[in-house]
Task: inverse folding
C-alpha cells in the first residue's frame, strides 16, 4: 500500500485503474509556449556584395532547450534564395537550405551565456528574412541572505532566509550539517516558501554549521547556495533552542495566528516583546501577555513570508526565538491539473511526473511508462477540474471523463509537497 501525505494510497492494480482515467486537454490548453530569447528585425538583401548582419544576445540559462527559426520573406518581402546563418561560429543553416520555395527553417541550437549570431544574405536583391531564437529556460538562482556567511551565532536556533529567482514554479529545501557526538549529521529542515522568498528554522549544535539551500523547478533543474557559520552559545550552557508556542504557522490570508506567552506567568520576567510582522518593532509587550491565558493573536492580512521574533528576559538572561509565518496564496488547482493533462497528451512522462507529489512519483512513473503509447488517447477523455475543498496543506477537486459514451466522475487529491509546491497526490 502507498500513502501520499496523509491520503490513503492504493495497490498497484488500483493505481493502474486510476491512471486509466488520466488525460490531457483537447487543444493546447496548459502547454507552455517557448520564450523568445532573441528576434531580429527584417534583414534585407540589397544589391552588391553579400549583406552580413551580426548580433550579440544573452541567455540566463545556457542549459535550456532552444531552437533557431528563420522566416523567409519576412514582412511581405521576397524570399532569399542564397544565405547562411551561424551561431557562435558554428553554421546552423547553409546554402543548401535556401531556395525561393523555402518559407521557414527551424533548427535546434545550443546557447552559451553570451551568443553571437551572424546572418549572411546573398543572391538577388529584395529578399528579407527574420531570425528568432526561442526556447524553454529555467533561469534558476537561489541565494541565502541570512545569516551572513562566516558569522558567529549565539542563539541555539537560527532562521535561514533567502530568495530565489525562477521563471517557472519552484520549490526550496534547506539542509543543515551539524556535528553531533563528533560526527557530521545532515538534517533537512521544514522550509516555508512564499513567492521568491524562503525561510527555515533550524536548531543548532555547538561548533561549525553548514547550511545548503536547494531550489528545484518543474523541469527538474536545481540550483543551490551554501554558507558556513559557527554556533558559540552565550552563556555556554545555552545549547537547547527555545521555541514559543505559535499556531498556525501556515495558512491563507487573512491568517489569525496565536502566540503563547506563558513565560509572563513567572514573577522574574522583565521583558516579553513580540515583533509579529518582522518589521523590527514590537507589536506586543509584557503587559499584553499578563492576563490569562497569556496569549495574543495577530492577523496577517496579506500573503507573504513573515519572521516573527519573540524576546524574553528572565533574571537577566534574554532568550530570543524567531519563527517563520507563511501566508500562502490559494493554489490554482485547474492550472495544475491542466499542466498534467497537457503533459500526458504529449506522452511526456517526466513532464507529467513534475505535477505528481514526490511520495507518489516512483509508482506513477512505472505506470506511465507502461501506458506511454496510450497516454495521448487516454488524455483526450478527461475534462476540466472543479475545486471542491482547499485547505493550507491539501485540497480536492472533481472532474469527469467520457468512456463508451458515459460520463464518469472522480476526485483529484492535491497536497503541498515538501518543497512547498502544490502537486497531485492521487487521482
Result:
Amino acid at each position: 500500500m502507498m500513502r501520499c501525505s496523509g491520503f490513503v494510497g492504493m495497490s498497484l492494480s488500483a493505481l493502474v485503474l486510476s491512471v486509466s482515467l488520466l488525460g490531457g486537454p483537447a487543444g493546447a490548453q496548459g502547454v507552455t509556449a517557448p520564450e523568445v530569447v532573441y528576434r531580429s528585425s527584417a534583414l534585407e538583401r540589397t544589391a552588391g556584395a553579400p549583406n552580413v548582419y551580426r548580433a550579440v544576445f544573452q541567455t540566463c540559462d545556457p542549459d535550456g532547450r532552444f531552437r533557431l527559426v528563420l522566416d523567409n520573406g519576412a514582412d511581405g518581402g521576397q524570399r532569399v534564395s542564397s544565405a547562411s546563418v551561424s551561431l557562435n561560429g558554428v553554421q546552423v543553416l547553409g546554402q543548401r537550405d535556401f531556395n525561393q520555395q523555402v518559407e521557414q527553417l527551424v533548427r535546434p541550437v545550443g546557447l552559451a551565456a553570451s551568443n553571437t549570431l551572424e546572418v549572411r544574405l546573398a543572391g538577388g536583391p529584395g529578399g528579407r528574412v527574420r531570425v528568432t531564437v526561442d526556447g524553454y529556460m529555467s533561469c534558476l538562482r537561489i541565494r541565502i541572505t541570512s545569516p551572513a556567511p562566516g558569522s558567529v551565532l549565539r542563539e541555539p536556533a537560527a532562521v535561514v532566509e533567502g530568495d530565489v529567482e525562477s521563471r517557472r514554479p519552484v520549490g526550496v529545501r534547506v539542509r543543515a550539517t551539524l556535528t553531533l557526538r563528533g560526527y557530521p549529521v545532515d538534517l533537512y529542515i521544514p522550509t516555508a516558501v512564499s513567492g521568491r522568498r524562503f525561510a527555515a528554522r533550524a536548531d543548532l549544535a555547538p561548533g561549525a554549521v553548514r547550511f545548503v539551500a536547494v531550489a528545484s523547478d518543474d523541469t527538474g533543474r536545481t540550483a543551490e547556495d551554501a554558507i558556513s557559520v559557527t554556533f558559540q552559545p552565550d552563556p555556554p550552557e545555552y545549547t537547547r533552542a527555545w521555541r514559543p508556542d505559535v499556531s498556525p504557522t501556515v495558512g491563507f490570508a487573512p491568517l489569525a495566528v496565536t502566540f503563547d506567552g506563558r513565560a509572563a506567568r513567572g514573577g522574574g520576567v522583565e521583558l516579553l516583546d513580540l515583533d509579529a510582522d518582522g518589521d523590527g518593532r514590537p507589536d506586543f509587550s509584557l503587559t499584553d501577555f499578563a492576563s490569562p491565558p497569556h496569549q495574543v493573536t495577530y492577523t496577517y492580512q496579506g500573503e507573504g513570508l513573515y519572521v516573527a521574533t519573540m524576546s524574553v528576559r528572565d533574571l537577566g538572561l534574554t532568550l530570543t526565538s524567531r519563527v517563520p509565518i507563511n501566508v500562502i496564496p490559494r493554489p490554482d488547482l485547474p492550472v495544475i491539473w491542466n499542466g498534467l493533462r497537457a503533459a500526458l497528451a504529449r506522452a511526456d512522462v517526466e513532464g507529467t511526473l513534475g505535477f505528481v507529489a514526490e511520495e507518489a512519483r516512483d509508482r506513477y512513473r512505472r505506470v506511465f511508462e507502461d501506458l506511454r503509447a496510450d497516454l495521448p488517447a487516454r488524455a483526450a477523455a478527461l475534462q476540466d477540474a472543479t475545486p471542491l475543498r482547499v485547505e493550507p496543506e491539501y485540497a480536492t477537486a472533481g472532474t469527469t471523463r467520457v468512456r463508451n459514451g458515459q460520463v464518469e466522475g472522480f476526485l483529484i487529491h492535491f497536497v503541498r509537497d515538501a518543497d512547498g509546491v502544490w502537486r497531485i497526490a492521487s487521482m
